[in-house]
Amino acid sequence: MTESRLTGPVRVVGVGLLGASIGLGLRAKGVDVILADASPTHLAIAVDYGAGRVAAVGDRPQLVVVCVPPDVTADVVAAELDAYPEAIVTDVASVKLAVYENLKARGADLSRYIGTHPMAGRERGGPMSGRADLFVGRPWVVAAHGGISYQDGSAIDDLILDLGATLVELTPEQHDAAVALVSHVPQVVSSLMARRLIDAPHASVNLAGQGVRDVTRVAASDPELWVQILGQNAAPVAEILRGYRDDLDRFIDALDNMDAPGARRRIAEELFGGNTGVERLPGKHGVDRRYSSLIVMIDDRPGQLARLFNDVGEAGANIEDLRLEHSPGAQIGLAEISVLPEVQQHLTDELAARGWRIAG
Predict the structure, then answer these.
(1) Are 51 and 33 in contact (CB under 8 A)?
(2) Quick one: which of 73, 124, 181, 219 has the fewest CB in 10 Å?
(3) At what angle do helices 234-256 and 185-195 cross, to 10 degrees?
(4) Average pLDDT of 201-229?
(5) What pTM value is reported for the model?
(6) How sure is the predictor about 208, in pLDDT bands with cuts at 50, 70 and 90?
(7) 51 neighbors 23 (Cβ within 8 angstroms)
(8) If you classify domain 177-279 with CATH, what class do you get?
(9) How many CB atoms lie within 10 A of CB 64?
(10) What pLDDT digit, counting tens, does each position of 44-85 carry?
């Protein structure tokens, strides 16, 4: 166990997924973690799982991390600043500017506050979903402002590094604009697309493949939480959605007039623009590069995926990415393996020679 960079106790307020994961990660470093939650049951579960201890009279935390819903984050941060006048306070809410402006308007001590946002999560919440390694390798934004010194805010940097995350410094405005584009608008688009499936014929839904599953995956998120998030970041999200609406209008107009001069070119250019945008997304190790893929059919029984991984390794190839899809009505799965283009043909031949069925 490597030693923590933090020198004093850390108080975590709110022991859902993020709070419990922060507690577990810090406890693994030997940090004294003090837990608090509005739900006694959640608090007891988090303590039982080893995420920290209950508060005691005389606790003097070095750092307070607020992990509560966005609509009460500013209230809790303000209360923690008042309750622990020697502590640095941060929060992990997914919107930063609204919290900062709320605290500034009420005259809170901003010399001891910086908002942060770890870009990490899981499909399920609650303290039982907490993981000590949840933040490893993930970006963690520090929404810096001029009211706190670098030296005073260093405890927050220590927290992020202790948990294995990658520190990214942005202003609150920059953060909210960024997450509107890469997180909040995708949530809206995904949810609206999934909503189209409600009244779809069963025959159509049964044809669903990996494409629609990819587009709608985040539509299963908690609506109540997202109403809070979107309410606090409404302007940047609305601005991007208006541009998206304009894109859709152009696309629809071209589809409605396919025989008009330039219609097919317009559609092709919009689709090619999507190719170009995808290429900007950082891939493995943050490197922008395209991979080749092959689809392998796997019998739906224990041990088959492990055997495939072993055969890929023995063929001298490295799996850069992997997606799994189950075939409706059949006891097989489809594994789409992404590899370097220069090894695709060799790997295809090797796997076929080992008895694997290559579907594409």
Answers:
(1) yes
(2) 124
(3) 50
(4) 89
(5) 0.80
(6) confident
(7) yes
(8) mainly alpha
(9) 27
(10) 999 999 999 999 999 999 999 999 999 999 999 999 999 999
